[in-house]
Amino acid sequence: MATDDEKVYTHEEKIEKLEYTVDNLKKAIEDLQRTQDEKLQQLEDRFQKFEAMHSGSATLKQCKETRGNKAVMDHVVNQELHPGPIDESVLNLQHDHRSTSVWRGQDFEPLTCRRCDGAFWRLGALDPRVQKLMIKAGFYGVYKAGHIQLDHALITALVERWRQETHTFHLPIGEATVTLQDVSVMWGLPIDGEPVTGHDITRTTEEWQEMCEELLGFRPPLSAFDSGRLKLKCIEDHFDLEPLQPDAPDHVVEFFARAHILQLLGGLLLPDASNNKVKLMFLPLLWDFDAAGKLSWGSAVLASLYRALCRATKPNVDGVCGPLVLLQLWAWERIPLIRPERLTPREQSLHVPSEEDHPLPAGPYGSRWDVGFKLEKIGMHVLVVYRDILDCMKDDQFVWQPYAYIIGSLPDYCLSGREIWQTVSPLLCFDVVEMHYPDRVLRQFGQHQNIPSDCDTFRELHSVDRRGRQNTDWVQHHKQYVDMWSNRRARVVCQPLIDGPMGYSDPYMIWYRRITRLLIGNPANRTDNGYQGVGGIIELMAQSLQRIYHRCIDAINQSDEGANSDTLREIQDICKNALRGAHEDRRLALRPELAQPSIMVGKASPSQVKRRRPRRGGKIGTLLGERSAYSSGDIYSPSAHYTMLPCTPSSQPYPSPSYSHEAFTPDVEPYVTLAPEVAHEEIPTDNKVETDASLSEHIDIVTVAPMQQDSSTMPQLINSPQPNISELDNMVGAIAVSPSSATDMFIPSESLCSQEDDMIMSVSERSKLKKRKAKC
């Protein structure tokens, strides 16, 4: 048995050993941190060095083993194309976003868009006395905008690009969103006023009956109430049975006006998820029509729209309710490619008299869509079409300032809150609080867009609602946000005006392409019928040509051989002409290292590929393993500096972009010709790899004039840091177009020698390949 001294000594020894171990661990961590950058650089160099050899040869052999199986081709596309975001510092909820499930191959039906305003529009023209009361309360513009049918597919496509983190739509050309300006111009709702909030008093059904009798003129039955909500069918039935008489007293006219406003609130502006009820908490706010008109109904409606879009982005959601007509009007005004053609366009004068004794103002700008449509050039109600249009969007296909030339002719009620259109403030509607960030979309106001600062959309408030919160005073509950809205004029953001579109290499666009979700549709997920999206394929082709172009520049600068330089210049001309012809020549001015890289970087969304039935006699090969990737360069994110002061946006925009392009004529004759009729035996096959006939059945080769030479004469750069002709040959050969399927265009060339095959194929794989060749 050990003595006390021995026990103390034993403990001290243990402590000393532990301290020694900790010191060694600290030194190891310091050494690791000191050499981490060097090791990462070495790994990046090794990856770039063997990238073409590994992907080209391995993919080619997989293609041969599967006899042109499209699942392998689709996996190659997935490996080469990253939908974003590369930098997840902004869109940090991508894992729980609807677009991730779409990319993985989940086939979503369009969201069910809930609304319950059909009965209101069937009433026809309202009595002019009722309309004048609606003007006082601020809802006249919504009534004049009329009934517009919702396109569920269009709403769903926009939801897929809505981001809860920023309250904006992330489009390929930048961020855009519905702002207070759109609510005011399109619907004429009051913007500048007190927030729509207050004390949500819990009342009994009998108390609600008494209030309805006092403010609506009738006592609904008990069965029409449901937890502070009233069935809209009850209002419809009562006022259909007792229409307004010409000699009705003023208080009866007020009954009708309040009832119709409730129908608009519950069916269109602030709809309930039940799809057939209206929240009675709005009824006390309509007691005095003049006081109701001083409330900011526009900000409340916009808050409801933001909340509905944020909830709809969840993958497990199948419906959405909110002021979705406003969203559809916003999209029609700004995206001409999806805009239906109006059959009877009309110009509105400043005042349109409805009756001689009751002159009423003209409708808001949104009323111009209350007409019939001609759909000869537009395909509506097809989700995959809308998704592909947004994926392929170019700078000149989005109208940043659709109201610039008409804003002076709008009725006064559409411009009443113009001073705060650009306020960075919370939007409130009782339990709903959502942030308004116009500083992220300043181009919508004709102003220069800097890289925006970090924003907080108060996601924790999305779980706050009226359930279980009886007798809540929302003014006190959301006091800090109410105070921010009260200070809305001091929170207005302004920037200098712009005189032209933003360039592709603008610092904002360089930053934006790294933090955004560029693509929604995955080109690898193809269906057996229907429209096949091409947005991802076009992006992959453009990225590949951009990389080839700039690698040629590097090779020309580093090469001493004149013949090689001439060939590289020819390849450069091919890329230049192809990008110009596809209206993607903006990429020529920016190196791909600063643009969107084409390899999978960071935490990528795993793809889900729909496999097709294999050809008879063939077998499905194993998909290639995911390629490792490393980040390239630091993120360019300078701090944004905005001037916070009251301002009035200019109504004069830069010249409107043209939506028609003249036919493109290249400066020199293109070297790439899409020639399906060219015989496959014209392709050089002196690289010791036989062309598989079954693979050729699915691929139409792109003939490249300068590449039709002996590959052995080109300098091999497998062990050299500078790019070479063989590597560029592999890149160019990877661009093949099949008229049957656009996703077959990226087939690796056979310009790699058998030495590389030995490096990437195991003995068993080579044995299997020999047996397959023998059978063929």
TrEMBL record:
<dbReference type="InterPro" id="IPR044824">
    <property type="entry name" value="MAIN-like"/>
</dbReference>
<keyword id="KW-0175">Coiled coil</keyword>
<protein>
    <submittedName>
        <fullName>OLC1v1022948C1</fullName>
    </submittedName>
</protein>
<dbReference type="GO" id="GO:0010073">
    <property type="term" value="P:meristem maintenance"/>
</dbReference>
<feature type="domain" description="Aminotransferase-like plant mobile">
    <location>
        <begin position="138"/>
        <end position="513"/>
    </location>
</feature>
<dbReference type="InterPro" id="IPR019557">
    <property type="entry name" value="AminoTfrase-like_pln_mobile"/>
</dbReference>
<feature type="coiled-coil region">
    <location>
        <begin position="8"/>
        <end position="53"/>
    </location>
</feature>
<dbReference type="Pfam" id="PF10536">
    <property type="entry name" value="PMD"/>
</dbReference>
